[in-house]
Amino acid sequence: MSQDMNLIAAVDIGSAKVAAAVGRKHSDGQVEVLGMESVKCDGMKRGVVFNVEEIVNAVRMVVSALEQRLNIKLIDVFVSVSGFNVRAIGNSCYRFIKQDELIKSFDLEQLLQDSYRIVLQPDEKILHVVPQDYAVDHEKGVKKPIGYSGQRLEGNFHVVIGTRSDVRKIEKCIERAGLRLNGLIFTPLASAEAVLSDEEKEAGVVMVDIGAGTTDLALFQDGVLRYSAVIPFGGNVVTNDIKEGCGVLQKHAEKMKIQFGSALGTMAREDAVVTIPGISGWEPKEIAFKSLACIIQARMEEIIELIVHHIERSGYFDKLGAGIVFTGGGSMLKHLVELTKLKTGFDARVGGVSRARSFEEEELMRVPSFATVAGLLVSAGKYPGSVITREQELFEDVEKEEPRVSKADRKKNNGTKNKKPKRDKLEYITGDLFSRLAGMFEEKDTEM
């Protein structure tokens, strides 16, 4: 967010680039993208920050470019989060409703808070708790139970979990760049908000964001997030395969993939070759389009097989009426849609930003690699847990010890005594003590 409270700012830190965007949310709910910038950066690997200084410099560059273009000062930003350490689980919890009372929003909020109390592994942190549906007594699949009459309310939630250490690294990068972290949003959720239509989410669809370091997916059915996962490799492994298979430099392998690569070997021309400049003292090297396509196809088939594996694991394999929608930089590979249809039988398409409008960045809005940063603007504050709040200090509600008063001072106070307020109920004392003791064993975020 900037000094203008109507503006929203976002930063997408990827394994190949850092992108930033500024938008304005209008009264009708539509988001207008005012500007987007990006710069190459490889300080992140497989979704995890490794080179903090390089990422900080990249964030400063894109933010400075946006500030100069739009004549604004950015302060708060929403940031994407992914990585091979991110996992997701389903969780159910319930509560009883008092007799003769209707279900209220307070009851839903209590169920949501209960899902934050699940047992986690050391160093883990809940990123999102996304409501799926509810059950009122014996009626299941209720999306909006407010106003229902029942005795037992049960909620099903999708819980996205990351690691505290990875989150702190992102916070460190943002703070060192002179910004303030407004919230973290799981990458495929942000991309889905920018690319998918409500009809696709209703029919059943898988959002697949192929980045340089990871491939993130989110499955929606009946308008609800049902499943999400992170595949720990993406477009960079394809580049490495070309480098090893063709014996060329990394920069040449990346250019070959983008300009001449194909995900389907049968679609490549057999009589065409690309000439790669040789290292000083070596002759140029010729590589056939067919050979290049076969190398790419082998790796893309592996990624598609893992996507199918996660779809089967979700239990919604037969309920995807809208198929698979690709986005991200890796989705720009030629003939990816044809290969996906061939291997999975699902309908497929490559999606750009469709849930936001822009007069300044019409061309970039059609580029899949900018879907995540635009999605951060659209989904800002939507997903529970995405907004950063200050953690409560340990024992911060304990009364401060009063200074000792001499006998002379006591006489001056006309013999009046300062009495400490008493607790009304013993149950409050024990409950408060237990919550404090439990908090002692939770790892507290420290400022880096």
Automatic annotation (TrEMBL):
UniProt cross-references to InterPro entries, sorted A to Z: ATPase_NBD, Cell_div_FtsA, FtsA/MreB, SHS2_FtsA
Cross-referenced NCBIfam families: ftsA
Top-level division of the source organism's lineage: Bacteria
Any one biological process term the GO annotation gives: FtsZ-dependent cytokinesis
Name this protein carries in UniProt: Cell division protein FtsA
Region ranges (Disordered): 398-424
Biased composition (Basic residues): 413-423
SUBUNIT field: Self-interacts. Interacts with FtsZ.
One Pfam family this sequence matches: FtsA
Localization of this protein: Cell membrane
Record key words, sorted: Cell cycle, Cell division, Cell membrane, Membrane
Classification via CDD domains: ASKHA_NBD_FtsA
All copies of domain SHS2, residue ranges: 8-195
Gene Ontology CC: one annotated term: cytoplasmic side of plasma membrane
Protein family per UniProt: Belongs to the FtsA/MreB family.
Keyword Cell membrane (UniProt): yes
Task of the protein: Cell division protein that is involved in the assembly of the Z ring. May serve as a membrane anchor for the Z ring.
